[in-house]
Design a protein that fits this description.
The protein is an alpha+beta fold and about 475 residues long. Helix content is about 30%, strand content about 20%. Strands 2-1-5-3-4 form a 5-stranded mixed sheet. A hairpin with a 2-residue loop joins strand 12 and strand 13. The protein is globular, with a radius of gyration of 23 Å. The model has no long low-confidence stretch (mean pLDDT about 90). One of its GO terms (molecular function) is oxidoreductase activity.
Length: about 475
Amino acid sequence: MVNFILNDKDISTDVFEGTCILDFLRHNQRLVGTKTGCQEGDCGACLILVGEWKGHLISYQSANSCLLSLGQVNGKHVITIEGLNQTDLTPIQQALLTEGATQCGYCTPGIVLAITGLFFNSSHFDSAQQLAAVDGNLCRCTGYQAIKRALIRVCQQLLSTASSLNHSKIERIAWLVEKQIVPAYFLQIPQRLQKYQLPAKPITTEMASVGTFIAGGTDLWTQPIDTSQPLIYLSPDKSLKGIHIEKNRCYIGAATTVEEIKNSPIIQAFFPKMTAYFKLIAATPIRHQATIGGNIVHASPIGDLTILFLVLETTLHLNSGHTQRTLALKDFFTGYRQVNKQPHEWVESLSFSLPSKHVLVNFEKVSKRTHLDVASINSAIQIHVEKDLIQQLHLSAGGVAPIPLYLAQTVNYLSGKKVTAATIRQAVTVAQTEITPLSDVRGSAEYKRLLLRQLIYAHFITLFPEQITLEALLP
């Protein structure tokens, strides 16, 4: 049985736990305010909010219901547009109306929920953070200027009264009720939700040998699911989540979400530009669900996180229930969508050595859209230069081979060399011998070879602007 709270209603259902929440809402509960759109997490028409009790507080995040299963909301609070209904329009709904920020209205429920989620999580944010709240919502007929005006209007209206507040998550809910952003029943949700909290069952070898592992599921739920196998949800296992430092290494649990990594003070302290890199990786609702372990095990040749963590000399920690082993991330990929992992094994965590202050890191990505799109190709670099010589270097590229590629030959060539335009041009020549790009919808093989050259150039121009210029690199 799956048990959770849906708006103000307790739900206990024996519907297959792999059923898409979007389908359950519309067909089983007849809550049709949640719309069916792309069913790939791109449009935001199906957006909901999901609240989770975390021991002492309740945390709400936006999520694409088309990429979420019943099993993933077990013990949680699911909010649809119907769950926000009150006698009058909420301030968010009123702002959208006042600014004429809706035409057909199909996308509007998702936008209302996305903005509502913004106020659940902060009372202090800038304009960029405000717009990021709706970065997973598309509106093809209204246009975006009216939506932006509505967002600015409601933020100015509400944040002017919250600027001096420093309240906890629980106190914030009371403030949201006071401002009529959410109905009064939200005040009882934290207490009601605690009764659903049960300890997660530890994963066993027997379970793993017959089941299908589910982490974030943001790619898995776009494909047909084998209903004959049990589903093993990794995210409830707290041992698979979190980021910590131990003996000069950073450890990240495999079920840690992309957004949690993006916002981690530990990650930001050692990689100040990491937040900017992560803005190129999916939309906020997807980052709320997608996990680092899922991104790696999925083994996509263009997996953004995989490409980035390849240059950090990342080690994977795997568990079979009986034995544990470690493996270098660059040795994990054996072929297209194939990895060095037994069916009964799962990735527990990954780790990497903390970089010194002299180490530089850069990530580059080219896609048809700057944001919210998969890469045509992507690339990352970690480099340490001392006394004008490259002392340490790691370089990766995605979209140019059947696997996320560590450019070993190029690394060997550059090691010990000076950072000069001539050296970099020759390094590009070496890199071209390592890659085997294919022509597909994201570009021809020739185009991808050109892109890799440009991204390698971009790494050095970005990190060494005083020594390397584009003019010096071009013939």
